[in-house]
Amino acid sequence: MTHRIPDTNGWIEIKDNPLSAVGVYDYKGATIGFPGLDPEAPYAVLRPEEELASEETVRSARLLPWTNDHPQTLMGEDGIPAEEVGVEGVTGEDIYFKDGKLYGNIKVFSASLAEDIRGGKTELSMGYACRYERKDGEFEGKPYQFAQKDIRFNHLSLVDSGRMGPEVAVLDSDSTTTGGNIMTEEVKQEQQQGADAANPAELLEQAIQALAALKAALGASDAKPEAGETSAEEALVAAAEQVIEAAGQEGDAPVEDAENAEATPAAKAEDEKEEDPKKAPAFDGFSRVLKHLAARDRLANAIKPHVGTFDHSEMTVQDVARYGVKKLGIHAQAGAELSTLQGYLQGKQPPRPVSAVMDGDKKSFLDSYLQPETK
Predict the structure, then answer these.
(1) What letter would DSSP give residue 113?
(2) I need a surface site. Which of 153, 223, 278, 315 has the fewest CB within 10 A?
(3) Which residues pair with 138 in a beta bridge?
(4) Phi/psi of residue 281, each to 5°?
(5) What Rg value do the Cα atoms of the chain yield, rounded?
(6) Bridge partners of 25?
(7) Secondary structure element (H or E) that encloses residue 201, with its range
(8) Which helix (H) or strand (E) holds 328?
(9) In this structure, what DSSP letter does residue 322 have?
(10) Angstrom distance (rounded) from CA 338 to CA 283
């Protein structure tokens, strides 16, 4: 017997589906937003039962848009318009909390979302806003350092790898197995093979090697190109941008334990570059692109506590600076927006952090480096 019941229009509804769960989960310091936290380090956060079961939290999960993968920001008046994201389903009104989990009915509208679910993409992730409270404790044998407060849901997303794994996924067969899904050994092996093939750290290493070889092939000379010709440097930067775009579209990798897990080859290379600045990379164009994107993200994350979330994925550093001074009402001369904004931020304390959160996907090394979590 299946949980997925089509209505008279052929749209699939799944009742009593898990949407979220109480537990201790890892979040990056950038997501929590407290001063002094390492933005890339994981911190253990408790999602308490009293918060997930509260009437306000349960009510906020009703009649929300269901998307295929998370949007760049939360949706709504101050976020990205729902029509730009592409709403492919909806949560229902039968939302309730029971035995440590939030449940509800969900309905699929789009054929593409239904096809992805049939193809095995079933894990779910809620997007929401919340506050974080510094609080040390232990839950079911797991220590934590922070607790979530005032959880308010914004949307539901179908993801490849959610923070709570198959415990919160689209139900299929009427089974008592984890998440209500029966997974054969053949399916597990196929998924593992796919994960191995799309290891983002290995992809980044391969990309770096390919770019270094490209620069050697183009010829790293000081000679200036003829009019209308593309220099080796320009070609390398263009190639780097293509690699960044392609790598960002690859599957997500599980978040690693920063203290116990052995660093990936890409992570080791980055650490070496920070420890010895004299070791300049042989691919300056690629490095420049990375540094620009990282600087842009740092600036965007610094002003979001003051102006709210916004999508900066297609902005430059200067674009973010112009946006910041405009939203903050700061007078700045044309071309001096960045320095003016930086001076303002040095003397301004952000308000108490209220964070927008996605319960998955788990970010790859490249995703984490280029786009620190703002959700």
Answers:
(1) H
(2) 278
(3) 143
(4) -70, 155
(5) 23
(6) 45
(7) helix 200-218
(8) helix 317-328
(9) H
(10) 27
Provide the domain count of the chain.
1
Range of the domain at 80: 4-193
pTM for the model? 0.52
SS3 content of the chain, % helix, strand, coil (to 5): 40, 25, 40
Tokens of 1: 């017997």
- Quote the longest CA-to-CA distance of the chain: 71
Cα 49 to the center of its chain, rounded Å: 24
CA–CA gap between residue 193 and residue 209 (Å, rounded): 23
Secondary structure class of 258 (helix, strand, coil)? coil
Residue type, 120: G
Task: For 188-226, write each residue's pLDDT tens digit.
Answer: 444 444 444 445 555 555 666 666 666 555 554 445 555
| Inside any domain, residue 129 | yes
Q: Please, is 39 exposed, middle or buried when counting C-beta atoms within 10 Å of its C-beta (0-12, 13-18, 19+)?
A: middle
Residue 73 CA to residue 356 CA, distance in Å, equals 8
Amino acid found at 216: A
State the DSSP H helix or E strand holding residue 295, giving kind and residue range, or none if neither: helix 284-307
Per-residue pLDDT of 222-243, as tens digits, reads 455 555 555 555 566 666 666 5
Q: Does 9 reside within a domain? A: yes
Strands 354-358 and 123-139: antiparallel
Residue 39 lies in a domain: yes
Residues 6+ away with beta carbon under 8 Å from 194:
251
